[in-house]
Amino acid sequence: MAAVEIVSFGYLHDEPPAAHLTIDLRHHFRDPHVSPELRYMTADDASVRDAVLSAPGVAALVLATAEAVTAFASGPSAGTITVADGCAGGRHRAPTFARALAELLQDAGHDVAIRHRDMDKDVVQR
Questions:
Q1: Best label site of 2, 4, 16, 74, fewest CB within 10 Å?
Q2: Is there a contact between 123 and 32 (Cβ–Cβ < 8 Å)?
Q3: Domain that holds residue 17
Q4: What's the total number of domains in the chain?
């Protein structure tokens, strides 16, 4: 199977990283940042992961993204497939999505590396 690099990031910190697929989670899925009890947590916290993964459409998008990676992997060119997924601050939705995608791809036999570009940055005040 193909090598896959997944990079989660926050659009409010910097430009999206270069990728074959870029998934923008900002506009279609509720931001845990709006809940005061979740705002200062990250995807390392179970309550954040639960909030993100239980949002309607997220699981389907993870599955669809995994299918897209499989399509890229079936092409004639070798090389790492890069998936970037971003949310506003990069602490909640993006890293949770990245981890769910990584798990699915690893289960399918892909060699997956994951990096959370902005998860450890300060909460963006907005």
A1: 74
A2: no
A3: 3-116
A4: 1
